[in-house]
## 1
Amino acid sequence: MSNAPALQFDHGSDMHAAELYQPAGAGFGVEHFEDIGPDEIAHFHEQGYLIVRQAFNSAEVKAALEGLVDLIMGKNLDFTGVMFESKAQDMLPKLGVEQRQDAVRKLMFFVEFEPRLKAISHHPQLIQAVTTLLGERAPHLFQDMALIKPPRLGREKPWHQDNAYFNYPQGTPVVGVWIALDEATIENGCMQFMPGQHKTGPRIHFQRRDWQICDTEILGQQSVAAPLKPGGLLFFSGLLPHGTPHNSSKKRRRALQFHYAPADVTQLPDNEERLRHFGSEGKDVTC
Ligand SMILES: O=C(O)CCC(=O)C(=O)O
């Protein structure tokens, strides 16, 4: 009998309308962590995001990618957090390093299994910036993910607010950090978001292509994109509406995403409060 862990699969969803992802331009940012000052912090609170274009150097990006690829290749038998595209299920045993990466949708909860990825999530300058953005509160990393968009196949992550997925009490500040490991462009599915709309609070989410904001709420609104070189990052509020389109290019798009909340707040034991704010049940709404 094999000792290999059971594999997880994710089923595809329909293609999105092109009009959902037509950004007006690129978002505001700085080059390095050292450039974050009071104006940048004020911008984060006003607009709900901040870009750091050269947060990590090429050695840090290379180490993170190597750690990610080792997990995808199943080198750590204790790690079961790789989610493959269900379409690739039958082919998996035959795939080599490059092809196997292109059969992955995402990885979750890996930092305790892979020191090279833990290092980036606990990078001192990253933690310092997150502490500041949380209002000088010590951060707790409560979710870590890697999102893979294979060339041509990488699927959309429809528009949503991340807090719609978390059971933190309403009002808890949550900072998301999205780190490009490949160059992320509009064509291969970089992040797009609605600046300032974190201030309008929780939005109703519906189960459609995913747990998402209704497309009709997004169409006609002007988004901004965060194209990034490898090692660039986006800080964003847990209430900022954002999404990523299908990868229509020939280039792979691999990214890390970490979420931090103040260490002195704990998640609620159930999803009642979350669904009261983000769910549609009991409300006179349709999508
Ligand atoms: O990287 C992506 O494609 C989407 C990430 C995201 O917004 C999420 O997983 O919440």
## 2
Amino acid sequence: MKCIYCGHSESKVLDSRNSDETNSIRRRRECLNCGRRFTTYESVERVPVVVIKKDGSKQPFDREKLKRGIVKACEKRPVKMETIEEVLDSIEKKLQSMTTSEIASSRLAELVLSALKAIDEIAYVRFAMVYKNFDDTFALKSFLSML
Ligand SMILES: [Zn+2]
């Protein structure tokens, strides 16, 4: 994605938003060369991925919803929004490269967890506590001891 001001080909993504109506991703970018900011719209031909929840119900994968969960887990932690966007990008890429269009919510949570583990351990534990649905303190303790 070339900078519209100087033509430099590297930029960092400051923010991404899905637009369901136009099936595109709006990205706010900052040029790594001149530092100016610009917006790009990338059309995506995505296979809709369905998330299967524990109770068997199905839901379309929702990047914004997952983002909210990760942002919450990263609250007051030194994790940049662009890092969170990168995590989401890599997860979406993984989802798109799957051979099926369905993923168990637990598997999706594991993808997030493995990414968060490398970024921030507190955020990792927070996310794990919400998404692993620990039903007793023993399960939580044994999980924490694996860290
Ligand atoms: Zn530039």
